[in-house]
Amino acid sequence: MTENTGISYVKGDATAPQGKGVKVIAHICNDLGGWGKGFVLALSRRWPEPEAAYRRWHRERARNDFGLGAAQFVQVGERLWVANVVGQRGMGTGSKGVPVRYEAIDAGLGRVAARAEELGASVHMPRIGCGLAGGKWSRVEPLITERLTRHGIPVTVYDR
Q1: Is 31 helix (H, G, I), strand (E, B) or coil?
Q2: How far is CA 65 from CA 2, 26, 71, 72, 86, in A?
Q3: Bridge partners (DSSP) listed for residue 9
């Protein structure tokens, strides 16, 4: 646990969150409707619902809030939810740099915080935005602290 952030760091699998009570597993999605690399594969191996819901959300985006900074909450167990947070523009690093969008992660974490408060839930995640999205943890960690732990929401980050 890093004292100044309130985030607990553990070795383990974020798709098997530790502890008691209601839990929300938060992860980052892209804004293209693509689901097929990185942490989403681990989610899909465990539950079909987050991928199906994300693909439907993207397909029907003309009629919903799909876009950077949005979050979708999918219940996968009696006390377990997955938060699909749209926090990267496109996929892969191109001429416009890495796909991660810190403002979108920040906005999405605000939505995760609101839902976690409603549910009385803790939040669990891998190092979001730092894998395929190409982000830096030094930029993401303060967003988690600001949006979640400062408001008393317990956060656990899983490292493999």
Answers
A1: coil
A2: 34, 18, 9, 9, 11
A3: 157
